[in-house]
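Before surveying the methods themselves, let us examine one representative protein, written as a sequence plus integers encoding its fold.
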Amino acid sequence: MPQRVFLHIGVPKTGTTFLQGVLWSQRDRAASQGLHLPLRSMHDHFLGSLDVRGLGGKPPHPADSAGAWDRLVEATRAHDGTVLISHELLSAASADQARKAVGWFGSDLEVHLVVTARDLLRQVTAEWQEHVKHRNTVSLEEFVRRVRDGAPERKGWFWLVQDYPGILQRWGSRLPASRLHVVTVPPKGAASDELWNRFAGVLGLDAGSFDLDASRANTSLGREQTEVLRQVNAALGDRLPFPGPYPAVAKDVLAHGALAGRAGQRLTLTDDDVAFARAEGARMVEQLDALGADVVGSLDDLLPSDEAAAAATSPEAYAVPGTDAMLTESVSAIADLLVALSEEKAEVGRLRGELDGLRGRGTREALRDAAGAARRRIGYPKR
């Protein structure tokens, strides 16, 4: 049975994909240092986040999300040492859902919460971009208006997953402050490994022993590229629904594959909205300080400097890119999509050829060869 369980409950757009990628790609190294990731993959933790939020098994969500949190808890108890469960959408759980999720571990396990937090000035535009990557068609200007309207009572999706003090209060209502950990995302210009060093330190890992190049990044888009995707979402109508086929095609291939490699203008806010984001961020810093949580990094990281605020400000922040820029980005994206389609068809053809070859050699021979290959992969001796 593990001595400690760390629940990394978010939040979105704070380097969670990077941190998870480092750990899952080097899972054995983490285990050798006493940290275990239960079940098979990051997807299992995503399923657990659905189950916690009452969405398990409910269409259109995967059927195997039903009971996923129970499976994570059971797998957790099978390990010794320290266990980490990590998914950013756990931050969206209600107070009652979070309380029940923590309660599943019982009183014999030492549960800790970890929240990775970034300054609100960067989070507003990052969350809008992520909404567009999830098939949304709302403009940045309208998105910011909704964020501002929901701020006083912390209403709406943005505040559900970006109100750091509120998330810790919902999840940690029955935990001592010493088990609440806030890992701040360093400001722009900091060393590229600083976030990982902070996160690894909380978990008791030797940060320098991990290969950070092995992880995958959740790539950001520029202003023009995000607008192309937003207009594609509108043109799709009811086609390629989300949840459904949209992420694998539009998000992974179009957004991350074709558009992310293009240079684009930085997403910015107007003067007034920058001032709003800074004020709300300062308000959250005061609340976090009052909670007495363990801060790894500095709460000052959540307070953008005047220089950072100036760089994030533009009077043209919400203007739609011009026709020439949109045409250039769209044509380039089409070209990249054609290349991706060609490569995909070539791979399908190769696999079909292998399958035909296996059929021609006979089932018994194919099974014998497959068994031999499997033994070599996992180190079994030859028979």
